Amino acid sequence: MTATVTVSHVEKRYRAVRALRDVSFELLPGRLSALVGHNGAGKTTLIKLMLGLIRAEHGDIRVLGEDPAAGEFSARRLLGYLPENVAFNAALTGRETLAFYARLKQIAPATAWPLLERVGLAPAADRKVGTYSKGMRQRLGLAQALLGRPRVLLLDEPTTGLDPALRQTFYEILDELRDDGATVLISSHALNELEDRAEHVLIMNRGVLAAQGTMSELRKISQLPIRVAIELADSGPVPDWMNGPHDPAAPGHVLLVADDAQKMMLLRTAADDPRVRNIEIAAPTLDELYAHFLNLQEPAA
Ligand SMILES: Nc1ncnc2c1ncn2[C@@H]1O[C@H](COP(=O)(O)OP(=O)(O)OP(=O)(O)O)[C@@H](O)[C@H]1O
User: Fold this and answer.
1) How far is the CA of 78 from the centre of ligand 1 (A)?
2) What are the ABC transporter domain coordinates in residue numbering (predicted)?
């Protein structure tokens, strides 16, 4: 599959601050990538580079085959962006705001009205943005980012401050876009939200791409154990097959296995033992993987 965004060996400095150090990755169509990292890790800088708002000192960036910082970046119209802090003119209505951005993208404003409906803003479309709640401004921001059916969508901390219902709608919209073949990149601190949604995760740490891959690739590289909690029907002696590494901090019997093959072996044995009442499996979470890769990098940083 051809990458829609390619970042190769990118370096970016702000005077003494090395905001990005030799960062390389690809974003693919029809895939949701999560960009995660502490404050100051370089996430917004990466997004600004992909938008062509700033230039890298070294390395190369291609968005839909073009250099986004070039004067004639014709793919700009196919790029959607939701900034971290959406700021709109308070005196314009939601509809007027969207019409303004539609014109900038050279799109007929009327084609934008269904977007107001889609983000649930239709009833408030003709109210001034100054009267909108934070969630409503965020929805307007999303509608703006979706103008012109973008092929690449860059979202900087999009769900901060959204209530759970709105988050749900938000991710439903992203699923539709992704199914339609769009490339979606979300920068976020909400790791638990992204865990089941992102097919690809980029972990940034102080300007360095500490790790990247699918959740299962990251689990494999990390070699963090899978937890298998086994509940026995009685408090008799623990069967021999349950010997092996345990999680000492967890109550009950939580066995630690290295990989899926070991997990399956354990499950087969457990399923054959009539004393086993329940089994719960927990693979390393994105939170745990994130902490792991950051810790790994600390000595080198
Ligand atoms: N315009 C600027 N001038 C000077 N330093 C900057 C500028 N923009 C960013 N930086 C620095 O570059 C580094 C990366 O910042 P960036 O905003 O990309 O991080 P981030 O991962 O988006 O952080 P956050 O999660 O807080 O939004 C930080 O050390 C930041 O202080």
Assistant:
1) 26
2) 5-231
Given a contact cutoff of 8 angstroms between Cβ atoms, the answer to whether 201 and 218 are in contact is: yes
* Cα of 42 from ligand 1 centre, angstroms: 6
pTM of the predicted protein model: 0.89
Which ligand 1 atom minimizes the distance to the CA of 41?
A: 21
CA distance 140 to 119: 7
Please give the DSSP secondary-structure letter assigned to residue 122: G
- CATH architecture assignment, domain 5-218: 3-Layer(aba) Sandwich (3.40)
User: In the chain, which residues fall in CATH 3.40.50.300?
Assistant: 5-218
Q: Is 14 in the pocket of ligand 1 (CB under 6 A)?
A: yes
Residue 202 and residue 49: Cα distance in Å, rounded?
16
Ligand 1, atom 31: closest residue by C-alpha = 40
**Is the shortest distance between the CB of 188 and ligand 1 below 6 Å?**
no
Could you read off the pLDDT tens digit of each residue along the chain, which spans 301 residues? 799 999 999 999 999 999 999 999 999 999 999 999 988 999 999 999 999 999 999 999 999 999 999 878 788 889 999 988 888 999 999 999 999 999 988 889 888 999 999 888 999 999 999 999 988 998 899 999 999 889 999 999 888 778 888 888 889 989 999 999 999 999 998 888 898 899 999 999 999 999 999 999 999 999 999 999 999 998 888 999 999 899 988 888 999 999 999 999 999 999 999 999 999 999 999 999 999 999 887 654 4
Question: Which residue puts its alpha carbon closest to atom 12 of ligand 1?
Answer: 19
Instruction: Quote the ipTM score.
Output: 0.96
Here the tokens at position 265 are 């072996």
